[in-house]
Specification:
The structure is a single chain. The chain has strands at 2-5, 8-11, 23-25, 30-34, 38-39, 44-46, 55-59, 65-68, 71-74, 78-86, 92-100, 112-122, 125-126, 132-137, 140-144, 146-150, 153-162, 180-187, 192-195, 200-201, 206-207, 214-217. By secondary structure, it is an all-beta fold. The chain folds into two domains: 2-100, Immunoglobulin-like, CATH 2.60.40; 107-217, Immunoglobulin-like, CATH 2.60.40. Strands 12, 13, 16, 17, 21 and 22 form a six-stranded mixed β-sheet that branches. Strands 14, 15, 18, 19 and 20 form a five-stranded antiparallel β-sheet that branches. A four-stranded mixed β-sheet has the order 4-11-10-7, with no helix packed on it. The termini are far apart.
């Protein structure tokens, strides 16, 4: 049996005498990546011992993700399903890859700021240095956590920008708006995204101090 791809005919091993891969899974429903990231997806076979673990990969949109020598490369923002087909027994599974733009923030673009001095933790443990955390209003990145250390105290500082203040009195002469800030964590090794349960309302104030850090536990 064969399957056609952009490279020609792909031979699929379906010999009844060859041990069959009864089940094959890509192991994840959703994978997150930033434009420029590259990663690999490791299929899971049941039973684990199979004679041929080769996978044929293809994506719905190669303008979003491309497969190069079994490595998935995020080339454009958007969503695309990644499909894997096992050469042995022709089992298929897919995972949704969501490619985000690289998180960027320029403080001088915003006239107002809320500053947060935070103790950011993951499942109660200190946040690994390679992980990224950012502040969003809607889908717009308004601040990126910067890891710092002062006299042995490790903390993450956020400078979160806005064009408007949020005041408790909407009848005042100042512009009134309630902007909700949400905090998002990105793990570039496992390509998982987490969001903090608690949100914050932009108020132009400082939250937390070096001696009394604002607590964030993802």
């Amino acid at each position: 049996m064969g399957m056609y791809s952009s490279c020609g005919l792909i031979d699929m091993d379906t010999d009844e005498n060859v041990q069959q891969a009864y089940e094959m899974s890509l192991g994840r429903d959703t994978v997150y990546a930033m434009v420029g990231d590259s990663f690999m997806v490791k299929p899971v076979f049941t039973p684990e011992i199979v004679s041929n673990v080769e996978i044929f990969w293809f994506a719905d949109y190669d303008s979003i993700i491309r497969v190069i020598n079994d490595t998935i490369v995020a080339v454009g923002e958007g969503k695309s399903f990644l499909h894997g087909i096992s050469v042995q027994d022709v089992k298929e599974d897919s995972t949704l890859v969501i490619v985000m733009p690289e998180w960027t923030y320029q403080p001088y673009n915003w006239p107002y700021e809320t500053v947060v001095y935070a103790n950011v933790r993951l499942n109660g443990e200190p946040l690994p240095a390679y992980m990224k955390v950012a502040a969003f209003v809607g889908d717009e990145c308004r601040g990126i956590g910067e890891k710092k250390n002062w006299n042995g105290i490790s903390y993450t500082q956020f400078r979160i920008g806005s064009e408007m203040f949020s005041y408790p009195d909407p009848t005042s002469d100042d512009i009134y708006i309630n902007e909700t800030i949400r905090f998002v964590l990105y793990d570039p090794e496992t390509h998982m995204l987490s969001e903090l349960d608690e949100t914050m309302t932009f108020d132009g104030e400082t939250h937390g101090t070096i001696s009394n850090l604002y607590k964030m536990d993802f």
